[in-house]
Write a structure and sequence with these properties.
Rossmann fold; six-stranded parallel beta sheet; binds nicotinamide-adenine-dinucleotide; elongated; single chain
């Protein structure tokens, strides 16, 4: 079959891989190719051991791979043949120089733009899929259109709102797809072409269009609002612990107000993931660079509360365990930043494990999907550290369990058996409020939830 469009995605990560798999699955008349400089990642995409864990992803990839979905390291030749290029490379926080710790590191983006210019022989639509500072497209267009080949590149912003762990259902049934473009003739034409891709399966009323800058900023703002909601309930959880209010009851009461909404109101040890912190820091940096210091300060506080929550969690463990955890075995249940992913980027469990190691605890990390990443994250952490798949083995001989990821698995374990295998007094610190605290207390555990009174036998 002759394909009607050639779509390329540069960057085969958590966003590029699943997004392109869904486009290929839903648009069999398009050829979709995903390229990356990381040959190992591409080899994994071409195997059944995909480089990322995401429920439902293997089925979607399997359906389209080698029919109209291809993974390759041949970047230049695929750029040359593409009509539309999605760029989904990483945009981490800068760790050096001007803006270090806040600004987005755009070196991968700029390199990609230059590769596109070099390999192109015809006009193309370039789609910003990565999350970028507002007005990045302006710089990008300058680089792209400063070519002497008489090629025109039209830049469109199509930020991705999928959440890891639910990426496939988010892609299949998105709340909205956002497409921003210049409001010129060429810009609007490119916008229509990108809208038509999504219209294969997304209802038209859910495809929102805007100018380029609104689209770029909306992604940063969306992540900042989501993280703000978590920090808001987490700040209230600290007050609950002081006042015998119960954060779950408070969340239910306030979430019933449709103006607030019930989602993202689960108190926890804090948010993680590659995006929230990075995108808020980026927003803060942009605000500062426009002289909007009060706005920058407001959004910085979302990060400050998140760090406070992680810190509070470790402090509560220390206080409860008689002010010392030295030589005590502590099982960390869950290392991924959330359930149903193996991703550990910015996971609160990293900080918690490191702090416990500093306190000379024996830390045993358990997780059904994230142990490989956990090993990398903690490779330089000094002290006694073990990685154990099986939660029962992880908890055996431990003084405490710290639940850091809300995996379903942890709700259904045999805690009587676990209690019997642990040192006494045995503690559970439920950093996700997912366990049956009364039942654990009944078994004999001392239970420390987030934002609720502790259940103690002493
Ligand atoms: N992870 C998420 O849940 C999520 C959600 C929405 C948006 N985003 C945004 O999407 C972007 C990508 O995120 P991710 O999580 O997929 O990142 P990732 O690190 O998993 O993947 C990025 C990939 O780009 C590749 N790459 C870098 N430079 C390249 C180049 N010059 N040529 C070819 N490949 C190159 C890397 O090798 C890597 O495999 C980021 O801007 C992120 O903020 C991420």
């Amino acid at each position: 079959m002759a394909f009607t469009k050639n779509i390329l995605c540069i960057g085969a990560g958590y966003v590029g891989g699943p997004t392109m798999a869904m486009i290929a699955h839903k648009c069999p008349e398009y050829k979709v190719t995903v390229v990356d400089i990381n040959a190992g990642r591409i080899a994994a995409w071409n195997s059944d051991a995909l480089p990322i864990f995401e429920p439902g992803l293997l089925e979607i990839v399997g359906h389209a791979r080698n029919k109209n979905l291809f993974f390759s390291t041949e970047i230049a030749s695929h750029i040359a043949e593409a009509d539309i290029i999605f760029v989904s490379v990483n945009t981490p926080t800068k760790t050096f120089g001007e803006g270090s710790g806040k600004a987005a590191d755009l070196q991968y983006w700029e390199k990609t733009a230059r590769e596109i210019v070099k390999a192109s022989q015809s006009d193309k639509i370039i789609v910003e899929k990565s999350t970028l500072p507002v007005r990045t497209a302006e710089a990008l267009e300058r680089i792209l259109n400063a070519n002497d080949k008489n090629i025109h590149f039209e830049v469109v912003s199509n930020p991705e709102f999928l959440a890891e762990g639910t990426a496939i259902s988010d892609l299949r049934h998105p709340d909205r797809v956002l497409i921003g473009s210049h409001e010129t003739k060429a810009g609007l034409a490119a916008r229509t072409i990108i809208c038509d891709i999504y219209a294969h399966w997304v209802p038209r009323e859910k495809i929102i269009t805007s100018n380029l800058w609104s689209a770029e900023l909306s992604k940063l703002a969306a992540n900042a609002f989501l993280a703000q909601k978590i920090s808001s309930i987490n700040s209230i959880s600290a007050l609950c612990e002081k006042t015998e209010a119960n954060v779950s009851e408070v969340a239910r009461a306030i979430g019933a107000d449709s103006r607030i909404g019930g989602k993202f109101l689960k108190a926890s040890v804090g948010f993680g993931g590659s995006c929230f912190k990075k995108d808020i820091m980026n927003l803060v940096y942009i605000c500062e660079s426009y002289g909007l210091h009060e706005v920058a300060k407001y959004w910085s506080s979302v990060i400050a509360i998140n760090e406070y929550q992680e810190h509070r969690f470790v402090k509560a463990m220390l206080t409860a365990m008689f002010n010392t955890v030295a030589t005590k075995r502590i099982a960390i249940f869950g290392f991924a930043f959330k359930a149903d992913t193996g991703d550990t980027r910015e996971s609160p469990a990293i900080y918690i494990a490191q702090r416990l190691l500093e306190e000379r605890a024996v830390v045993v990390v358990s997780d059904p999907q994230a142990l490989q990443n956990a090993r990398v994250d903690l490779k330089n952490a000094p002290g006694a550290l073990e990685f154990v798949d099986d939660p029962y083995r992880a908890a055996a001989g431990a003084h405490a369990i710290a639940v850091c990821t809300e995996w379903e698995l942890y709700k259904t374990l045999d805690y009587k058996k676990i209690f019997a295998s642990m040192e006494k007094p045995a503690f559970v610190f439920d950093g996700r409020n997912i366990l049956d605290h009364a039942a654990l207390f009944e078994i004999g555990f001392n239970v420390f939830p987030i934002g609720k009174g502790a259940l103690k036998h002493f």
